[in-house]
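Preliminary data (for renewal application), adenosine-5'-triphosphate complex.
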Amino acid sequence: MRLSQILFVTLRDDPADAEIPSHKLLLRAGYIRRIGSGIYAYLPLMWRVLQKVSQIVREEMNATGAQECLLPQLQPADLWKESGRWDTYTKAEGIMFSLIDRREQQLGLGPTHEEVITAIARDMIRSYRQLPLNLYQIQTKFRDEIRPRFGLMRGREFIMKDAYSFHADEASLKETYQDMYKAYSNILRRSGLAFRAVEADSGAIGGSGSTEFMVLAEAGEDEVLYTEDGKYAANVEKAVSLPIDAETSRFTTYEKRDTPGTETIEKVCQLLNCSPTQLVKNVLYQTVYDNGITVLVLISIRGDQEVNEVKLQNELTKLAPEYGAKTIISLNVPNVEAQQAWTAKSLPLGYIAPDIADEYINANKQIHPKFLRLMDQTAVDLKNFVTGANEAGYHVVGANWSEQFQLPRLIVDIRKARPGDRATHNPEQTLESARGIEAGHIFQLGTKYSEAMGATYTNEQGEEKPLLMGCFGVGVSRLAQAAVEQSYDKDGIIWPIAIAPYHAIVTIPNIKDAQQIEIAQKLYTELNQAGIETLLDDRDERAGVKFKDADLIGIPYRIVTGRAIANGKVEVVERATRNSQEIVIEEVTTTLHKWITAAIQVKN
Ligand code: ATP
Ligand code: MG
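Predicted structure:
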Protein backbone atom coordinates (compact mmCIF):
# COMPACT_ATOMS: atom_id res chain seq x y z
CA MET A 1 0.00 0.00 0.00
CA ARG A 2 1.04 3.55 -0.72
CA LEU A 3 0.67 5.77 2.30
CA SER A 4 -0.30 8.69 0.04
CA GLN A 5 -3.42 6.78 -0.98
CA ILE A 6 -4.71 5.26 2.23
CA LEU A 7 -6.38 6.50 5.38
CA PHE A 8 -3.25 7.20 7.38
CA VAL A 9 -3.51 9.60 10.30
CA THR A 10 -1.19 9.59 13.28
CA LEU A 11 -1.46 11.76 16.38
CA ARG A 12 1.47 13.55 17.94
CA ASP A 13 0.08 13.68 21.47
CA ASP A 14 -1.28 11.05 23.79
CA PRO A 15 -5.07 10.87 23.75
CA ALA A 16 -6.49 12.12 27.03
CA ASP A 17 -8.60 9.10 27.93
CA ALA A 18 -6.00 6.39 27.37
CA GLU A 19 -4.29 5.10 30.50
CA ILE A 20 -1.90 2.36 29.47
CA PRO A 21 0.87 2.49 26.85
CA SER A 22 -0.66 0.01 24.39
CA HIS A 23 -3.97 1.85 24.35
CA LYS A 24 -2.25 5.21 23.79
CA LEU A 25 -0.05 3.83 21.05
CA LEU A 26 -2.82 2.08 19.12
CA LEU A 27 -4.86 5.28 19.14
CA ARG A 28 -1.92 7.52 18.26
CA ALA A 29 -0.69 5.30 15.49
CA GLY A 30 -4.12 5.17 13.88
CA TYR A 31 -4.82 1.48 14.50
CA ILE A 32 -8.06 1.96 16.39
CA ARG A 33 -10.63 4.67 16.91
CA ARG A 34 -12.97 4.97 19.87
CA ILE A 35 -16.64 5.10 18.87
CA GLY A 36 -18.18 4.80 22.33
CA SER A 37 -17.41 3.36 25.75
CA GLY A 38 -15.71 0.02 25.14
CA ILE A 39 -16.53 0.25 21.42
CA TYR A 40 -13.73 0.61 18.89
CA ALA A 41 -13.31 0.66 15.14
CA TYR A 42 -10.47 -1.54 13.91
CA LEU A 43 -8.86 0.58 11.20
CA PRO A 44 -7.08 -1.06 8.25
CA LEU A 45 -3.70 -1.55 9.96
CA MET A 46 -5.37 -3.08 13.02
CA TRP A 47 -7.53 -5.30 10.88
CA ARG A 48 -4.40 -6.78 9.29
CA VAL A 49 -2.97 -7.50 12.75
CA LEU A 50 -6.23 -9.10 13.85
CA GLN A 51 -6.34 -11.22 10.73
CA LYS A 52 -2.80 -12.41 11.34
CA VAL A 53 -3.59 -13.36 14.92
CA SER A 54 -6.79 -15.07 13.73
CA GLN A 55 -4.83 -17.00 11.13
CA ILE A 56 -2.36 -18.29 13.72
CA VAL A 57 -5.28 -19.27 15.94
CA ARG A 58 -7.01 -20.97 13.01
CA GLU A 59 -3.91 -22.94 12.01
CA GLU A 60 -3.34 -24.14 15.56
CA MET A 61 -6.98 -25.08 16.05
CA ASN A 62 -7.17 -26.90 12.73
CA ALA A 63 -4.00 -28.79 13.60
CA THR A 64 -5.83 -30.34 16.57
CA GLY A 65 -8.67 -31.49 14.35
CA ALA A 66 -11.13 -28.85 15.54
CA GLN A 67 -13.62 -27.61 12.95
CA GLU A 68 -14.43 -24.00 12.24
CA CYS A 69 -18.03 -22.77 12.11
CA LEU A 70 -19.91 -19.54 12.78
CA LEU A 71 -22.71 -19.35 15.33
CA PRO A 72 -25.38 -16.67 15.61
CA GLN A 73 -24.78 -13.59 17.74
CA LEU A 74 -28.49 -13.09 18.30
CA GLN A 75 -29.50 -15.69 20.83
CA PRO A 76 -33.07 -16.49 21.93
CA ALA A 77 -33.65 -15.97 25.65
CA ASP A 78 -35.29 -19.40 25.84
CA LEU A 79 -31.94 -21.14 25.42
CA TRP A 80 -30.49 -19.13 28.28
CA LYS A 81 -33.51 -19.86 30.42
CA GLU A 82 -32.97 -23.57 29.80
CA SER A 83 -29.40 -23.37 31.04
CA GLY A 84 -30.52 -21.21 33.96
CA ARG A 85 -28.22 -18.32 33.01
CA TRP A 86 -30.72 -15.77 31.64
CA ASP A 87 -31.29 -13.97 34.93
CA THR A 88 -27.69 -14.00 36.11
CA TYR A 89 -26.55 -12.69 32.71
CA THR A 90 -29.18 -9.99 32.22
CA LYS A 91 -29.97 -8.77 35.73
CA ALA A 92 -27.94 -6.89 38.34
CA GLU A 93 -24.27 -7.20 37.36
CA GLY A 94 -25.01 -9.50 34.41
CA ILE A 95 -23.06 -8.62 31.28
CA MET A 96 -25.38 -9.72 28.48
CA PHE A 97 -27.01 -7.10 26.29
CA SER A 98 -30.64 -8.10 25.93
CA LEU A 99 -33.38 -6.81 23.67
CA ILE A 100 -36.95 -7.43 22.59
CA ASP A 101 -37.80 -7.96 18.94
CA ARG A 102 -40.90 -6.79 17.02
CA ARG A 103 -42.75 -9.94 18.05
CA GLU A 104 -42.03 -9.19 21.68
CA GLN A 105 -39.52 -12.02 21.93
CA GLN A 106 -36.51 -11.61 24.22
CA LEU A 107 -33.06 -12.03 22.75
CA GLY A 108 -29.50 -11.62 23.97
CA LEU A 109 -26.39 -10.57 22.09
CA GLY A 110 -23.91 -13.39 22.45
CA PRO A 111 -21.32 -12.86 25.21
CA THR A 112 -20.39 -16.55 24.85
CA HIS A 113 -21.93 -19.58 23.13
CA GLU A 114 -22.37 -22.54 25.48
CA GLU A 115 -26.16 -22.45 25.12
CA VAL A 116 -26.19 -22.24 21.33
CA ILE A 117 -23.64 -25.00 20.85
CA THR A 118 -25.33 -27.26 23.43
CA ALA A 119 -28.65 -26.83 21.62
CA ILE A 120 -26.95 -27.89 18.38
CA ALA A 121 -25.28 -30.87 20.05
CA ARG A 122 -28.60 -31.91 21.57
CA ASP A 123 -30.17 -32.04 18.13
CA MET A 124 -27.31 -33.49 16.16
CA ILE A 125 -25.22 -35.76 18.37
CA ARG A 126 -26.92 -39.11 18.93
CA SER A 127 -24.21 -41.70 19.37
CA TYR A 128 -20.79 -42.19 20.90
CA ARG A 129 -19.65 -42.88 17.34
CA GLN A 130 -19.91 -39.16 16.60
CA LEU A 131 -17.55 -38.31 19.49
CA PRO A 132 -15.26 -36.61 20.29
CA LEU A 133 -16.01 -33.40 18.49
CA ASN A 134 -14.57 -29.90 18.76
CA LEU A 135 -16.15 -26.88 17.05
CA TYR A 136 -14.76 -23.35 17.05
CA GLN A 137 -15.50 -19.94 15.68
CA ILE A 138 -13.77 -16.57 15.49
CA GLN A 139 -16.32 -13.87 16.08
CA THR A 140 -17.34 -10.61 17.69
CA LYS A 141 -18.65 -11.00 21.22
CA PHE A 142 -20.77 -8.52 23.13
CA ARG A 143 -20.43 -7.95 26.85
CA ASP A 144 -21.81 -5.03 28.82
CA GLU A 145 -18.71 -4.94 31.01
CA ILE A 146 -19.07 -3.07 34.30
CA ARG A 147 -15.78 -1.33 33.70
CA PRO A 148 -14.82 -1.22 30.03
CA ARG A 149 -11.29 0.12 29.82
CA PHE A 150 -7.82 0.03 28.33
CA GLY A 151 -9.06 0.03 24.73
CA LEU A 152 -9.30 -3.46 23.28
CA MET A 153 -8.24 -5.06 26.56
CA ARG A 154 -11.73 -4.82 28.04
CA GLY A 155 -14.14 -3.83 25.33
CA ARG A 156 -17.89 -4.20 25.18
CA GLU A 157 -17.52 -5.56 21.67
CA PHE A 158 -14.43 -7.67 21.00
CA ILE A 159 -13.16 -10.57 18.95
CA MET A 160 -12.89 -13.99 20.50
CA LYS A 161 -12.09 -17.45 19.30
CA ASP A 162 -14.26 -19.83 21.23
CA ALA A 163 -14.24 -23.59 20.93
CA TYR A 164 -16.55 -26.17 22.45
CA SER A 165 -15.80 -29.85 22.66
CA PHE A 166 -18.01 -32.88 23.29
CA HIS A 167 -16.95 -36.21 24.74
CA ALA A 168 -18.17 -39.59 25.84
CA ASP A 169 -15.78 -39.84 28.79
CA GLU A 170 -13.39 -37.93 31.03
CA ALA A 171 -10.32 -39.38 29.36
CA SER A 172 -11.35 -37.97 26.00
CA LEU A 173 -12.14 -34.57 27.53
CA LYS A 174 -8.73 -34.53 29.19
CA GLU A 175 -7.03 -35.42 25.94
CA THR A 176 -8.67 -32.52 24.08
CA TYR A 177 -7.88 -30.24 27.03
CA GLN A 178 -4.21 -31.18 26.69
CA ASP A 179 -4.34 -30.58 22.94
CA MET A 180 -5.84 -27.16 23.55
CA TYR A 181 -3.19 -26.44 26.17
CA LYS A 182 -0.55 -27.11 23.55
CA ALA A 183 -2.40 -25.18 20.85
CA TYR A 184 -2.76 -22.15 23.12
CA SER A 185 0.91 -22.25 24.04
CA ASN A 186 1.75 -22.40 20.33
CA ILE A 187 -0.58 -19.49 19.53
CA LEU A 188 1.05 -17.23 22.10
CA ARG A 189 4.59 -18.30 21.27
CA ARG A 190 4.05 -17.86 17.54
CA SER A 191 2.49 -14.43 18.14
CA GLY A 192 5.75 -13.45 19.84
CA LEU A 193 4.41 -13.10 23.38
CA ALA A 194 5.98 -13.92 26.75
CA PHE A 195 3.33 -15.75 28.75
CA ARG A 196 2.65 -18.10 31.62
CA ALA A 197 0.00 -20.81 31.84
CA VAL A 198 -1.58 -20.65 35.29
CA GLU A 199 -4.13 -22.62 37.29
CA ALA A 200 -7.38 -20.73 37.23
CA ASP A 201 -10.61 -20.54 39.15
CA SER A 202 -13.30 -22.72 37.60
CA GLY A 203 -16.09 -21.06 39.51
CA ALA A 204 -18.53 -23.19 41.43
CA ILE A 205 -18.79 -25.71 38.59
CA GLY A 206 -15.58 -27.14 39.92
CA GLY A 207 -14.87 -29.42 37.00
CA SER A 208 -11.49 -30.99 36.89
CA GLY A 209 -9.65 -27.86 36.07
CA SER A 210 -9.03 -24.78 34.06
CA THR A 211 -5.94 -22.96 32.87
CA GLU A 212 -5.51 -19.31 31.98
CA PHE A 213 -2.85 -18.11 29.59
CA MET A 214 -1.42 -14.91 30.97
CA VAL A 215 0.58 -12.48 28.89
CA LEU A 216 3.06 -10.99 31.33
CA ALA A 217 2.80 -7.19 31.59
CA GLU A 218 2.71 -4.59 34.35
CA ALA A 219 -0.62 -3.25 33.10
CA GLY A 220 -2.26 -6.68 33.49
CA GLU A 221 -5.46 -6.76 35.50
CA ASP A 222 -4.67 -10.18 36.98
CA GLU A 223 -2.19 -11.16 39.64
CA VAL A 224 -0.32 -14.41 39.19
CA LEU A 225 1.51 -16.21 41.99
CA TYR A 226 4.29 -18.57 40.98
CA THR A 227 7.39 -20.30 42.31
CA GLU A 228 10.90 -19.96 40.92
CA ASP A 229 11.20 -23.72 40.37
CA GLY A 230 8.50 -23.44 37.67
CA LYS A 231 6.35 -26.09 39.36
CA TYR A 232 3.53 -23.83 40.48
CA ALA A 233 1.69 -20.88 38.92
CA ALA A 234 -1.86 -19.82 39.66
CA ASN A 235 -4.15 -16.87 39.39
CA VAL A 236 -4.34 -15.26 42.85
CA GLU A 237 -8.11 -15.99 42.72
CA LYS A 238 -7.31 -19.67 42.82
CA ALA A 239 -3.87 -19.85 44.44
CA VAL A 240 -3.20 -21.95 47.53
CA SER A 241 -0.25 -21.68 49.90
CA LEU A 242 1.02 -22.35 53.37
CA PRO A 243 0.70 -19.20 55.47
CA ILE A 244 3.64 -17.99 57.52
CA ASP A 245 3.71 -19.66 60.97
CA ALA A 246 1.62 -18.11 63.72
CA GLU A 247 3.53 -16.80 66.70
CA THR A 248 2.94 -18.65 69.96
CA SER A 249 0.32 -16.83 71.96
CA ARG A 250 1.50 -14.91 75.00
CA PHE A 251 -1.84 -15.54 76.71
CA THR A 252 -2.23 -18.72 78.68
CA THR A 253 -5.45 -18.11 80.56
CA TYR A 254 -8.82 -17.17 79.23
CA GLU A 255 -9.90 -13.67 80.20
CA LYS A 256 -12.04 -10.83 79.00
CA ARG A 257 -10.04 -7.63 78.51
CA ASP A 258 -11.06 -4.02 78.37
CA THR A 259 -9.88 -2.87 74.92
CA PRO A 260 -11.56 0.44 74.14
CA GLY A 261 -11.18 1.99 70.69
CA THR A 262 -9.66 -1.11 69.09
CA GLU A 263 -11.97 -1.82 66.16
CA THR A 264 -9.06 -2.70 63.88
CA ILE A 265 -6.66 -5.62 64.08
CA GLU A 266 -3.74 -3.23 64.21
CA LYS A 267 -5.09 -1.33 67.19
CA VAL A 268 -6.01 -4.36 69.24
CA CYS A 269 -2.60 -5.93 68.60
CA GLN A 270 -0.91 -2.75 69.68
CA LEU A 271 -2.93 -2.47 72.85
CA LEU A 272 -2.54 -6.14 73.81
CA ASN A 273 1.01 -6.27 72.54
CA CYS A 274 0.35 -9.38 70.47
CA SER A 275 0.81 -10.49 66.86
CA PRO A 276 -2.10 -10.53 64.38
CA THR A 277 -1.24 -14.22 63.91
CA GLN A 278 -2.61 -14.87 67.43
CA LEU A 279 -5.97 -13.40 66.63
CA VAL A 280 -9.18 -14.82 65.22
CA LYS A 281 -10.77 -12.16 63.06
CA ASN A 282 -14.49 -12.42 62.28
CA VAL A 283 -15.59 -10.84 59.03
CA LEU A 284 -19.17 -10.27 58.04
CA TYR A 285 -20.47 -10.69 54.49
CA GLN A 286 -23.93 -10.58 53.06
CA THR A 287 -25.02 -12.65 50.08
CA VAL A 288 -28.25 -12.74 48.13
CA TYR A 289 -29.30 -16.02 46.51
CA ASP A 290 -31.24 -16.23 43.26
CA ASN A 291 -34.47 -16.93 45.15
CA GLY A 292 -34.17 -13.55 46.86
CA ILE A 293 -33.01 -14.89 50.24
CA THR A 294 -30.32 -12.86 51.99
CA VAL A 295 -27.87 -14.85 54.08
CA LEU A 296 -25.48 -13.26 56.56
CA VAL A 297 -22.10 -14.94 56.46
CA LEU A 298 -19.59 -14.83 59.30
CA ILE A 299 -16.06 -15.80 58.41
CA SER A 300 -13.46 -16.59 61.02
CA ILE A 301 -9.89 -16.34 59.80
CA ARG A 302 -6.46 -15.67 61.34
CA GLY A 303 -5.93 -11.97 62.01
CA ASP A 304 -3.08 -11.46 59.54
CA GLN A 305 -4.92 -13.20 56.67
CA GLU A 306 -7.44 -11.95 54.15
CA VAL A 307 -10.55 -13.47 52.67
CA ASN A 308 -10.36 -14.53 49.01
CA GLU A 309 -13.75 -13.45 47.71
CA VAL A 310 -13.62 -15.71 44.67
CA LYS A 311 -13.12 -18.77 46.88
CA LEU A 312 -15.86 -17.48 49.18
CA GLN A 313 -18.24 -17.02 46.26
CA ASN A 314 -17.59 -20.60 45.13
CA GLU A 315 -18.33 -21.96 48.62
CA LEU A 316 -21.53 -19.95 48.86
CA THR A 317 -22.65 -21.19 45.45
CA LYS A 318 -22.02 -24.78 46.52
CA LEU A 319 -24.19 -24.13 49.57
CA ALA A 320 -27.05 -22.66 47.50
CA PRO A 321 -29.21 -25.83 47.70
CA GLU A 322 -29.26 -25.54 51.52
CA TYR A 323 -31.11 -22.26 51.03
CA GLY A 324 -33.37 -23.58 48.30
CA ALA A 325 -31.44 -21.69 45.62
CA LYS A 326 -29.24 -22.46 42.63
CA THR A 327 -26.69 -19.69 42.72
CA ILE A 328 -25.81 -16.39 44.35
CA ILE A 329 -26.49 -13.07 42.70
CA SER A 330 -24.48 -10.77 44.93
CA LEU A 331 -21.87 -10.84 47.65
CA ASN A 332 -20.54 -7.93 49.64
CA VAL A 333 -19.47 -6.61 53.02
CA PRO A 334 -22.65 -4.93 54.31
CA ASN A 335 -22.24 -1.24 55.05
CA VAL A 336 -24.15 0.48 57.84
CA GLU A 337 -27.12 1.13 55.61
CA ALA A 338 -27.31 -2.49 54.46
CA GLN A 339 -27.05 -3.70 58.06
CA GLN A 340 -30.05 -1.64 59.03
CA ALA A 341 -32.18 -3.83 56.80
CA TRP A 342 -31.62 -6.89 58.96
CA THR A 343 -30.09 -6.11 62.37
CA ALA A 344 -32.33 -6.62 65.38
CA LYS A 345 -29.95 -4.66 67.60
CA SER A 346 -26.75 -2.84 66.90
CA LEU A 347 -23.78 -5.10 66.15
CA PRO A 348 -20.59 -4.87 68.22
CA LEU A 349 -18.59 -4.12 65.07
CA GLY A 350 -14.88 -4.64 65.52
CA TYR A 351 -15.55 -6.82 68.56
CA ILE A 352 -17.47 -9.72 67.02
CA ALA A 353 -16.66 -13.24 68.22
CA PRO A 354 -17.09 -16.45 66.20
CA ASP A 355 -20.20 -17.27 68.25
CA ILE A 356 -22.08 -14.00 67.83
CA ALA A 357 -25.74 -14.78 68.48
CA ASP A 358 -28.22 -15.28 65.68
CA GLU A 359 -30.51 -12.95 67.65
CA TYR A 360 -28.76 -10.05 66.01
CA ILE A 361 -30.63 -11.00 62.85
CA ASN A 362 -34.10 -9.62 62.44
CA ALA A 363 -35.30 -12.47 60.24
CA ASN A 364 -38.16 -12.37 57.80
CA LYS A 365 -39.10 -14.22 54.61
CA GLN A 366 -36.23 -12.65 52.74
CA ILE A 367 -33.62 -12.80 55.53
CA HIS A 368 -32.35 -16.15 56.72
CA PRO A 369 -32.52 -16.31 60.55
CA LYS A 370 -29.04 -17.77 61.16
CA PHE A 371 -25.52 -16.71 60.41
CA LEU A 372 -23.76 -18.97 57.98
CA ARG A 373 -20.51 -19.57 59.86
CA LEU A 374 -17.46 -20.46 57.80
CA MET A 375 -14.00 -20.96 59.16
CA ASP A 376 -10.64 -20.92 57.48
CA GLN A 377 -8.07 -23.51 58.52
CA THR A 378 -5.73 -20.74 59.75
CA ALA A 379 -8.22 -19.92 62.50
CA VAL A 380 -8.80 -23.58 63.39
CA ASP A 381 -5.08 -24.07 64.06
CA LEU A 382 -4.82 -21.32 66.70
CA LYS A 383 -4.41 -21.92 70.42
CA ASN A 384 -4.93 -19.42 73.24
CA PHE A 385 -6.12 -16.90 70.68
CA VAL A 386 -7.49 -13.38 70.96
CA THR A 387 -10.90 -12.55 69.51
CA GLY A 388 -13.84 -10.19 70.04
CA ALA A 389 -16.03 -10.46 73.15
CA ASN A 390 -19.29 -9.64 71.32
CA GLU A 391 -19.34 -6.41 73.29
CA ALA A 392 -18.06 -3.05 72.07
CA GLY A 393 -14.74 -2.20 73.72
CA TYR A 394 -13.89 -5.74 74.83
CA HIS A 395 -11.86 -8.67 73.55
CA VAL A 396 -11.13 -12.09 75.00
CA VAL A 397 -7.62 -13.54 75.20
CA GLY A 398 -6.34 -17.08 75.76
CA ALA A 399 -9.39 -18.64 74.07
CA ASN A 400 -9.45 -22.16 72.64
CA TRP A 401 -11.71 -24.14 70.33
CA SER A 402 -13.90 -26.71 72.10
CA GLU A 403 -13.41 -24.76 75.30
CA GLN A 404 -14.83 -21.26 74.99
CA PHE A 405 -15.87 -21.58 71.34
CA GLN A 406 -17.23 -24.41 69.23
CA LEU A 407 -15.74 -25.04 65.81
CA PRO A 408 -18.35 -24.45 63.13
CA ARG A 409 -19.45 -27.26 60.83
CA LEU A 410 -17.90 -25.70 57.73
CA ILE A 411 -14.12 -25.44 57.59
CA VAL A 412 -13.08 -24.33 54.13
CA ASP A 413 -10.17 -22.71 52.31
CA ILE A 414 -11.21 -19.10 51.83
CA ARG A 415 -7.84 -17.51 52.43
CA LYS A 416 -6.05 -15.34 49.95
CA ALA A 417 -2.59 -16.66 49.11
CA ARG A 418 0.07 -13.95 49.11
CA PRO A 419 3.54 -13.36 47.76
CA GLY A 420 6.01 -14.55 50.40
CA ASP A 421 3.80 -17.48 51.48
CA ARG A 422 5.38 -20.93 51.23
CA ALA A 423 4.31 -23.19 48.38
CA THR A 424 2.29 -26.30 49.14
CA HIS A 425 4.26 -28.52 46.75
CA ASN A 426 7.54 -27.59 48.42
CA PRO A 427 7.63 -25.37 51.51
CA GLU A 428 11.14 -24.24 50.63
CA GLN A 429 9.73 -22.42 47.64
CA THR A 430 8.00 -19.11 48.28
CA LEU A 431 5.35 -17.53 46.09
CA GLU A 432 6.33 -14.61 43.89
CA SER A 433 3.93 -12.25 42.22
CA ALA A 434 3.61 -11.06 38.61
CA ARG A 435 0.97 -9.16 36.66
CA GLY A 436 -0.70 -10.73 33.66
CA ILE A 437 -3.22 -10.08 30.93
CA GLU A 438 -5.56 -13.05 30.48
CA ALA A 439 -5.35 -13.84 26.78
CA GLY A 440 -6.90 -17.29 26.89
CA HIS A 441 -8.78 -19.64 29.15
CA ILE A 442 -9.33 -23.36 28.73
CA PHE A 443 -11.90 -25.11 30.79
CA GLN A 444 -13.27 -28.58 31.52
CA LEU A 445 -16.98 -27.90 31.80
CA GLY A 446 -18.20 -31.41 32.45
CA THR A 447 -21.96 -31.88 32.16
CA LYS A 448 -23.22 -28.54 33.48
CA TYR A 449 -24.82 -27.42 30.20
CA SER A 450 -25.63 -30.81 28.73
CA GLU A 451 -27.54 -31.81 31.87
CA ALA A 452 -29.37 -28.52 32.14
CA MET A 453 -30.35 -28.60 28.47
CA GLY A 454 -30.80 -32.33 27.99
CA ALA A 455 -27.96 -32.88 25.52
CA THR A 456 -27.36 -36.61 25.66
CA TYR A 457 -25.87 -39.36 23.52
CA THR A 458 -26.14 -43.13 23.52
CA ASN A 459 -23.02 -44.94 24.74
CA GLU A 460 -21.63 -48.27 23.59
CA GLN A 461 -23.85 -50.11 26.05
CA GLY A 462 -26.91 -48.40 24.63
CA GLU A 463 -27.40 -46.13 27.66
CA GLU A 464 -28.33 -42.48 27.36
CA LYS A 465 -25.73 -40.20 28.98
CA PRO A 466 -25.17 -36.44 29.19
CA LEU A 467 -22.38 -35.19 26.94
CA LEU A 468 -19.16 -34.15 28.62
CA MET A 469 -18.00 -30.73 27.45
CA GLY A 470 -14.93 -28.52 27.33
CA CYS A 471 -14.73 -24.86 26.35
CA PHE A 472 -11.73 -22.91 25.19
CA GLY A 473 -11.50 -19.14 24.59
CA VAL A 474 -8.85 -16.80 23.20
CA GLY A 475 -9.33 -13.04 23.17
CA VAL A 476 -8.07 -12.27 19.69
CA SER A 477 -8.36 -8.48 19.99
CA ARG A 478 -7.09 -8.48 23.57
CA LEU A 479 -4.11 -10.63 22.54
CA ALA A 480 -3.22 -8.19 19.75
CA GLN A 481 -3.16 -5.26 22.14
CA ALA A 482 -1.30 -7.31 24.74
CA ALA A 483 1.48 -7.75 22.16
CA VAL A 484 1.89 -3.97 22.10
CA GLU A 485 1.79 -3.76 25.88
CA GLN A 486 4.75 -6.13 25.90
CA SER A 487 6.68 -4.53 23.09
CA TYR A 488 7.10 -0.80 22.61
CA ASP A 489 9.59 1.99 23.27
CA LYS A 490 9.43 5.76 23.60
CA ASP A 491 8.97 6.16 19.87
CA GLY A 492 6.16 3.70 19.35
CA ILE A 493 5.05 0.15 18.79
CA ILE A 494 7.47 -2.72 18.09
CA TRP A 495 5.33 -5.46 16.54
CA PRO A 496 6.48 -9.05 16.73
CA ILE A 497 7.11 -9.89 13.06
CA ALA A 498 4.50 -12.65 12.92
CA ILE A 499 1.61 -10.30 13.66
CA ALA A 500 2.90 -6.97 12.32
CA PRO A 501 0.45 -5.42 9.84
CA TYR A 502 3.30 -5.17 7.31
CA HIS A 503 6.82 -6.54 7.38
CA ALA A 504 8.54 -3.57 5.80
CA ILE A 505 8.11 0.05 4.87
CA VAL A 506 10.02 1.72 2.04
CA THR A 507 10.55 5.36 2.88
CA ILE A 508 11.37 7.97 0.25
CA PRO A 509 13.15 10.77 2.13
CA ASN A 510 12.82 13.30 -0.67
CA ILE A 511 9.75 13.02 -2.84
CA LYS A 512 11.22 15.52 -5.31
CA ASP A 513 14.08 13.16 -6.15
CA ALA A 514 13.17 11.08 -9.21
CA GLN A 515 15.89 8.50 -8.62
CA GLN A 516 14.80 7.95 -5.00
CA ILE A 517 11.23 7.44 -6.21
CA GLU A 518 12.23 5.04 -8.93
CA ILE A 519 14.32 2.81 -6.67
CA ALA A 520 11.70 2.90 -3.94
CA GLN A 521 8.93 1.89 -6.31
CA LYS A 522 11.01 -0.89 -7.76
CA LEU A 523 11.83 -2.26 -4.30
CA TYR A 524 8.23 -1.87 -3.17
CA THR A 525 6.97 -3.96 -6.10
CA GLU A 526 9.72 -6.55 -5.80
CA LEU A 527 9.29 -7.03 -2.06
CA ASN A 528 5.52 -7.45 -2.32
CA GLN A 529 5.95 -9.92 -5.16
CA ALA A 530 8.30 -11.93 -2.96
CA GLY A 531 5.61 -12.12 -0.29
CA ILE A 532 7.18 -9.48 1.95
CA GLU A 533 4.23 -7.32 2.91
CA THR A 534 5.48 -3.80 2.26
CA LEU A 535 4.24 -0.24 2.60
CA LEU A 536 5.53 2.64 0.51
CA ASP A 537 5.80 6.03 2.21
CA ASP A 538 5.48 8.26 -0.84
CA ARG A 539 3.82 11.12 1.00
CA ASP A 540 4.93 14.67 0.43
CA GLU A 541 6.28 15.05 3.96
CA ARG A 542 9.64 15.78 5.52
CA ALA A 543 11.92 12.76 5.98
CA GLY A 544 11.85 13.28 9.77
CA VAL A 545 8.07 13.04 9.86
CA LYS A 546 8.13 9.83 7.84
CA PHE A 547 10.75 8.23 10.08
CA LYS A 548 8.75 9.17 13.18
CA ASP A 549 5.58 7.68 11.71
CA ALA A 550 7.33 4.46 10.69
CA ASP A 551 8.65 4.12 14.25
CA LEU A 552 5.26 4.88 15.75
CA ILE A 553 3.36 2.29 13.73
CA GLY A 554 6.07 -0.24 14.48
CA ILE A 555 6.81 -1.85 11.12
CA PRO A 556 9.72 -4.30 11.70
CA TYR A 557 11.96 -3.12 8.81
CA ARG A 558 12.39 0.34 7.31
CA ILE A 559 14.11 0.70 3.96
CA VAL A 560 15.32 4.19 3.13
CA THR A 561 16.18 5.21 -0.43
CA GLY A 562 18.43 8.04 0.74
CA ARG A 563 22.03 9.05 0.14
CA ALA A 564 23.29 5.47 -0.12
CA ILE A 565 21.63 5.03 -3.50
CA ALA A 566 24.60 6.87 -5.00
CA ASN A 567 26.55 3.67 -4.14
CA GLY A 568 23.79 1.36 -5.30
CA LYS A 569 22.63 0.74 -1.75
CA VAL A 570 19.74 1.50 0.59
CA GLU A 571 19.67 1.87 4.35
CA VAL A 572 17.76 -0.89 6.17
CA VAL A 573 16.81 -0.22 9.80
CA GLU A 574 15.46 -2.84 12.15
CA ARG A 575 12.71 -1.29 14.30
CA ALA A 576 13.29 -3.41 17.40
CA THR A 577 17.06 -2.94 17.73
CA ARG A 578 17.50 0.22 15.61
CA ASN A 579 20.39 -1.60 13.93
CA SER A 580 21.00 0.05 10.62
CA GLN A 581 22.98 -1.24 7.66
CA GLU A 582 23.45 -0.41 4.03
CA ILE A 583 22.47 -3.22 1.70
CA VAL A 584 23.04 -3.49 -2.05
CA ILE A 585 19.71 -2.77 -3.72
CA GLU A 586 19.61 -6.06 -5.61
CA GLU A 587 20.11 -7.99 -2.34
CA VAL A 588 17.43 -6.29 -0.27
CA THR A 589 14.61 -8.71 -1.09
CA THR A 590 16.57 -11.91 -0.49
CA THR A 591 18.10 -10.51 2.70
CA LEU A 592 14.77 -9.44 4.15
CA HIS A 593 13.19 -12.69 3.10
CA LYS A 594 15.86 -14.58 5.02
CA TRP A 595 15.48 -12.44 8.15
CA ILE A 596 11.71 -12.57 8.21
CA THR A 597 11.46 -16.31 7.62
CA ALA A 598 14.06 -16.90 10.31
CA ALA A 599 12.21 -14.68 12.79
CA ILE A 600 8.89 -16.38 12.17
CA GLN A 601 10.37 -19.89 12.15
CA VAL A 602 12.10 -19.49 15.50
CA LYS A 603 8.65 -18.89 16.94
CA ASN A 604 7.17 -21.88 15.16
P1 ATP B 1 -11.96 -11.46 32.24
O1 ATP B 1 -11.74 -12.17 33.56
O2 ATP B 1 -10.77 -10.71 31.77
O3 ATP B 1 -13.23 -10.67 32.22
P2 ATP B 1 -13.31 -13.74 31.23
O4 ATP B 1 -12.96 -14.76 32.23
O5 ATP B 1 -14.63 -13.07 31.32
O6 ATP B 1 -12.16 -12.63 31.17
P3 ATP B 1 -13.73 -15.64 29.09
O7 ATP B 1 -15.19 -15.61 29.24
O8 ATP B 1 -12.97 -16.85 29.50
O9 ATP B 1 -13.09 -14.34 29.77
O10 ATP B 1 -13.38 -15.27 27.58
C1 ATP B 1 -12.28 -15.82 26.86
C2 ATP B 1 -11.28 -14.76 26.49
O11 ATP B 1 -11.89 -13.62 25.88
C3 ATP B 1 -10.53 -14.18 27.67
O12 ATP B 1 -9.47 -15.02 28.03
C4 ATP B 1 -10.07 -12.84 27.14
O13 ATP B 1 -8.86 -12.99 26.40
C5 ATP B 1 -11.17 -12.44 26.19
N1 ATP B 1 -12.06 -11.43 26.77
C6 ATP B 1 -12.98 -11.61 27.74
N2 ATP B 1 -13.62 -10.47 28.00
C7 ATP B 1 -13.11 -9.53 27.17
C8 ATP B 1 -13.37 -8.14 26.94
N3 ATP B 1 -14.30 -7.51 27.62
N4 ATP B 1 -12.64 -7.50 25.99
C9 ATP B 1 -11.69 -8.15 25.29
N5 ATP B 1 -11.41 -9.45 25.46
C10 ATP B 1 -12.09 -10.14 26.38
MG1 MG C 1 -15.18 -11.21 32.03
